[in-house]
Design goal:
Chain A: It holds the Pfam family Alpha-E. Chain A: It comes from Christiangramia aestuarii. The complex is a heterodimer of chains A (about 325) and B (about 500). With about 325 residues, chain A is mainly α. Chain A has 15 helices and no strands. Classes of the chains: A mainly alpha (about 325), B alpha+beta (about 500).
């Protein structure tokens, strides 16, 4: 496979995954806030700031945000680099350059998705289309995941796409955790909640489509402790960071062909990072969640850079 | 002109007796070969066709089978319009076409070999020297070079029309980078999706075997010493109007689709940059014009090609398909010598007719052209895509003067031909929700390899969607039809 095309497929996977997380984060947070149990988390400004923080590292301030503008910027503003419409455009452009390698079924699904987003009426979106739009985006991404898994040859092409998908998933889940953690810190106490029992943990799990399964696993109301353990460390939770790292480690083997990867290779680094989190316990993480989040984002980034250097350098 | 029948979707179908109508004969009866199809289509209402037409359109759009049109401000994504009424060619008629286009492709290949070697046809005065010496498409670089397998025009696209006399005429031989074959396959798919039932009544040849034959052809022209050749398709990139076709062919052949930047040349061998390092490339099906192939030999600012590619080619380490330099023989002026070229190399009479042509470079013929501009089609010899053509009977007085002036200024640049009346075929027109006659042509695809040849049993029937328009090119608003070549019963 061509190095340039591999790079494009890697990013196709990343953009598809990113579009979904941003869409779901918008949907869950916006609608959860409507009947949130405390005043602050019900406030529209609070939610809009959270959305911007997750989508674009926006730092909170006292500046009044315009709801229509924020929602438009994140979803459909083509001039905005972090909008869903741009992610879908880029995913399709990347798919275009690899059209000979992917299945007609996958390409057609991406293309349909692109035209859906491109032609979504902005006015309809701003006047009550938020739910419909974001749900359709997440459903389209599910279709794409199915086409990737079900119609592609599980060879190097598949491995490259899955590396992109899983690295992005881990990154986005961490970003969502970071964002909701900051919300929980701000919103604590206003309804007699401690941080540990904040309503934001439930929202966080829903943002990662993991609420029901978390309830099934722990059989109790989510706390900071159980939520973070589930979303970071539980290898059986399909959205957990650990699961993504396991997937990354599985797919890199398609590219290395070596049982024991040499040092300075991507395979080696991935194994090292994976081992680090495999033997981590939540008690260690909880002490300083903020540093932990920064560390894991750095780790994920270093894997992406290593892959780029080893495979996509052309 | 009179009403042809009482089928509602054919309500506004007015047969023009001056033109050859593909489905109605001179007594307004449906020709035998179309009878079954016509009856089947009569079962559908105008509304059905409107619905099917929309379905076919969205199918093309969703599959991303689109081309880009460059407007003043933005690039628009457009589908190549597809018509629901297929064109049918019976086995006997097809045999003539197949033999004829193969004959032309072989003659052109022999002609190219001669032009780049001994030049006997010029020495013997059959083709004038100035036609070659003044051609921008003659490449001195490959003079005396033997291309692998002795093949220059591996892929030829021959454009044919049916004139009012009911005979086929060749309009053009395209042997640089002829495109359109992917649409042949898409049109078949689209028609099957929309009206699969009609296929039960006709035995049409498949068109999906093109890619495997193309791959076999590419493999026959591998460089010496290579066992299993590594073939690739090179494209100018995703913004090229034929990108869909490039990606389709690469996918269907199971080979890599590369861009110039994916390749490099070292010690006169060509490599592609893969995730596991450089990999040698042996055969390149190039969809880039000669002038962009190699910045060291041609346009120095071209970013589409590969520096050093021509040197590797001339060393015989890589095969380029079609060979560089084929453009000299698909010049519209060379076309007029095709009957002589066929006779000279193959010692055969041309199977397919050539349109009689007047060379403006010859003083007496120029004089005739100047006097008869209103009855002739005047074409520049070196423009593709239907640009720069003037059709005599469509011109105003001032425009005719304009053409005369241009011809006098630059006679070598132009040829003229009688106005051929392209045959018409029923075509679904959205505005009237009816089938109306529209002009069609036919592009066939011929492959030549070392000891292997193949003609795709089918072709691209292009249709001029505007009433009365004779220019069928997609860049000028043409559409296309599925084309059935029937099996012998």
């Amino acid at each position: 496979m061509l190095a340039r095309v591999a790079n494009n497929l890697f990013w196709m996977g990343r953009y598809i995954e990113r579009a979904e997380h941003v869409a779901r984060y918008m949907n869950v947070n916006y609608f959860a806030s409507l009947d949130a149990p405390n005043e602050l988390s019900q406030s529209r400004q609070f939610v809009l700031q959270s959305l911007l923080f997750m989508a674009d590292d926006f730092s909170r301030n006292d500046h009044e945000l315009n709801e229509e503008q924020v929602l438009y910027d994140i979803a459909l503003n083509p001039d905005n680099a972090f909008s869903i419409i741009n992610y879908v455009k880029l995913a399709r452009e990347n798919a275009n350059s690899a059209r000979d390698l992917i299945s007609t079924e996958l390409y057609e699904a991406i293309n349909k998705f692109y035209h859906f987003v491109l032609n979504y009426p902005v006015e309809q979106f701003q006047k009550g289309g938020l739910y419909d739009f974001t749900v359709q985006v997440t459903e389209n991404v599910s279709v794409l995941r199915g086409k990737i898994r079900g119609t592609l040859l599980h060879d190097e092409v598949y491995a490259i796409i899955m590396l992109g998908v899983n690295l992005e998933r881990a990154t986005q889940v961490i970003r969502i955790i970071n964002s909701k953690f900051k919300d929980a810190v701000l919103a604590q106490g206003s309804y007699g909640d401690t941080l540990k029992n904040s309503y934001e943990w439930t929202t966080l799990l829903k943002c990662a489509e993991s609420y029901d399964m978390m309830r099934r696993f722990y059989r109790e109301t989510p706390t900071s402790f159980t939520t973070l353990e589930f979303l970071i460390l539980n290898p059986d939770c399909p959205r957990s960071v650990m699961n993504s790292l396991n997937q990354v480690s599985l797919h890199i083997r398609k590219l290395t062909h070596e049982k024991y990867p040499q040092k300075h290779t991507s395979g080696f680094l991935i194994g090292k990072v994976r081992a680090k989190y495999q033997y981590k316990i939540i008690e260690e993480i909880e002490i300083d969640l903020e540093s932990f989040i920064q560390n894991i984002l750095d780790d994920l980034n270093s894997i992406a850079l290593k892959l780029e250097k080893e495979y996509f350098h052309y | 002109m009179k009403k042809t029948n009482d089928n509602p979707t054919f309500e506004s179908y007015n047969r023009d007796p001056k033109l050859f109508d593909e489905i109605f004969d001179e007594n307004d009866n449906v020709r035998d070969i179309y009878k079954t199809l016509f009856n089947l289509y009569s079962e559908h209402s105008a509304k059905d066709f409107g619905r099917l037409n929309n379905k076919a359109k969205s199918s093309f759009f969703n599959q991303g089978i689109t081309f880009q049109v460059y407007g003043d401000h933005e690039i628009k994504e457009k589908i190549f319009p597809f018509d629901l009424f297929p064109r049918i060619i019976d086995a006997q008629e097809w045999e003539l076409i197949e033999k004829g286009v193969l004959q032309r492709s072989k003659a052109l290949n022999a002609f190219l070999w001669d032009l780049y070697h001994d030049k006997n046809i010029i020495k013997e005065g059959i083709v004038p020297l100035e036609l070659i010496s003044s051609s921008a498409n003659y490449l001195d670089q490959i003079n005396g070079f033997d291309p692998p397998g002795g093949i220059y025009n591996h892929i030829s696209g021959t454009d044919l029309i049916k004139h009012s006399d009911g005979k086929y005429y060749v309009l053009e031989d395209n042997i640089r980078c002829p495109s359109g074959v992917s649409y042949v396959i898409c049109n078949r798919t689209a028609l099957k999706r929309a009206l699969f039932g009609v296929f039960n009544h006709y035995q049409a040849h498949t068109v999906t075997d093109y890619a495997e034959n193309l791959l076999q052809i590419l493999e026959t022209v591998k460089p010496k010493g290579v066992d299993v050749p590594n073939c690739v398709v090179i494209t100018p990139g995703i913004y090229n109007s034929a990108y869909y076709e490039h990606s389709y062919l690469a996918k269907a052949m199971g080979v890599e689709l590369v861009e110039g930047r994916d390749l490099f040349v070292e010690n006169d061998f060509v490599y592609m940059k893969t995730i596991s390092g450089p990999q040698k490339v042996d055969v390149i099906y190039r969809r880039i014009d000669d002038q962009f192939l190699d910045p060291l030999e041609f346009k120095p600012d071209s970013a589409l090609g590969v520096p050093g590619l021509m040197a590797a080619y001339k060393k015989g380490n890589v095969c380029l398909v079609n060979a560089p330099g084929t453009g000299v023989a698909d010049d519209k002026a060379i076309y007029t010598y095709m009957p002589e070229i066929i006779k000279y190399y193959l010692d055969e009479d041309p199977i397919l007719n050539n349109v009689p042509t007047y060379h403006c470079s010859r003083p007496d013929e120029l004089e005739y052209v100047l006097e008869n501009v209103h009855n002739l089609v005047v074409k520049p010899v070196d423009e593709a895509g239907g640009y720069g053509i003037s059709i005599g009977n469509k011109l105003s007085k001032d425009e005719i003067e304009e053409v005369r002036k241009t011809l006098k200024e630059n006679p070598r640049k132009y040829i003229a031909q009688p106005i051929m009346s392209l045959s018409v075929h029923p075509t679904y027109i959205e505005e009237t929700e009816c089938f109306e006659p529209r002009h069609v042509d036919l592009r066939t695809f011929t492959l030549l390899g070392a000891d292997k040849e193949f003609v795709l049993k089918g072709g691209l029937t292009r249709v001029a969607l505007q009433k009365g328009n004779l220019i069928v090119n997609s860049s000028q608003g043409g559409g296309s039809k599925d084309t059935w070549v029937l099996k012998n019963n």
